[in-house]
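Feature request disguised as a bug report, sorry. It would help if multi-protein outputs had a clear separator. Right now it looks like this:
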Amino acid sequence: MHYVLLITNTLSRHINDKKKKRSISNAPVIASNFPDPSFLEFDNTFYAFSTNNGKQNVPVARSPNFNNNWTLLKNHDALPTLPTWTTGNIWAPSVIRLSNGNFVLYFSGTSRNDKRKHCIGAATSSNIEGPYVPLDESLVCPLNDGGAIDASAFHDPISQKLYLTWKVDGNSLGGGGPCGNADGSHSTPIRIATLNPSTGTSLTGSASTILDRDKNDGPLIEAPSLAYSTSEEMYLLFFSSNCYNGVLYDISYATAKNVLGPYTKAKQPLLVSGDHGGRLKSPGGAEVSPDASRIVFHGNREAGKPAVREMWVGELSVRGNVVTI
């Protein structure tokens, strides 16, 4: 059984005690390895997708109510067949539904041309659970810059454009440390480009950088997820910083009035190790709903040990340029 710990904003409670309280699960809703989770609501059901577990390229889980009752689809692989450009090791899948009803799954996989680096691919299906059929060619593959990971699509409700964000994986180029780039010699920017809205499988514009690391982020930033708060008329770019395999890994965010920025980082992260009574350990790899109301993320089962990263869920509140959970 999973219980829910209610975390309330003092000001909002003072204004209206009857408003729904925001919450975060005080235990993982998937208590097995389910790293870098993403989710999508479809047909009154929530679906989650994760990095490979050593057996399935893209494991899938579902829930009727988001906050609990998540069930792993046993032996189910949303991406059972890989394209020839990758040798596998699939990371951080993310799914979007197009206006025509079809689904597109974005993922990163080890490049066959350079097995130290990942590239981003796309796959399509008429069923949210798959199987997804991958494109023959990668979608984003800047090998000279370190490759690309953590793709996430976002439909902008203001411009009605479809965007793809991703991380340039500069720390794969070296630089020392537990996850590379300890010497700060490589860039790990978050980039964005428009997608063909009809197919979701090709970029239609040049990519631009919307965020990069600073001294507070350690060797990298990664795991971008875009959302838009209608009430605050604000774009929110969620991301993780520091090494995924260390205790400093976190979930942070930045805000902007334009989808292309400039983005201003929040003064403090949204979630860090030790939050919520010490329950959270290296929270990161999050994805947020397009309206910034829900979040899924992983946390280590054991501090500093990423071998098992369990899935947590939470509800978000945006007030001004501050996000609370």
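(second protein starts here, but nothing in the output says so)
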Amino acid sequence: MVLTSLAAMELTIPDLVSRTRLTIHIIGSTEHELLRLRLTEGFLHLLTNLRALIVGYIGPDLPAASTRPGELENSQCCLECASAGRKRQIFFRRELYHQCRNSGMSPEYSPDLIVAYHSGHADSESGAWAPTLGHILDLDTPTLFTTYNEREARDEEAVLTCMGARFLQTYGENRWRGMVPKLENFGAREYIAQQEQLHKRFMGPG
């Protein structure tokens, strides 16, 4: 999560290592992102000049209630970061990203990077993501999309290309991806087949 986002910022923010403040918007956020909220302190550890990190979690499926417009919550840092005067702040918006335009979070907390982890926007019904994607393109802010597999990546790139997006890097294998496969149980037969394939790959035939 942190290393993937950091790699994207290295491509898009020339003065990244000298930055003292960064703002990241994680769109389509769910409970999954909130369970990993503490991991974002890694940005403070890896970017030693950074003194203030703001992370916004935005998505209609957030279990957390929205913070009031313009309000930030302090998030605990380790003793080393706290003693160095570094701070990490967060906000929550339980709504679609394009609906945040009137939330008071922009331009004061405008993002240096927008991140959509495994959004599946190309598979969404009735173009549900279209307004948000259009808003992102209007912002002209560097945006990182991750997917579960190559097919999703190819489809999402095709959607964005049709909308006029410019790519600093096209889809490819994420060198910082998780090493533990995530299985999706589409059905008993498919699940068993996945288990057998993984067993052969990591344990050998047997």
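Even a blank line would do. Unrelated, but nice: The chain has seven helices and six strands.
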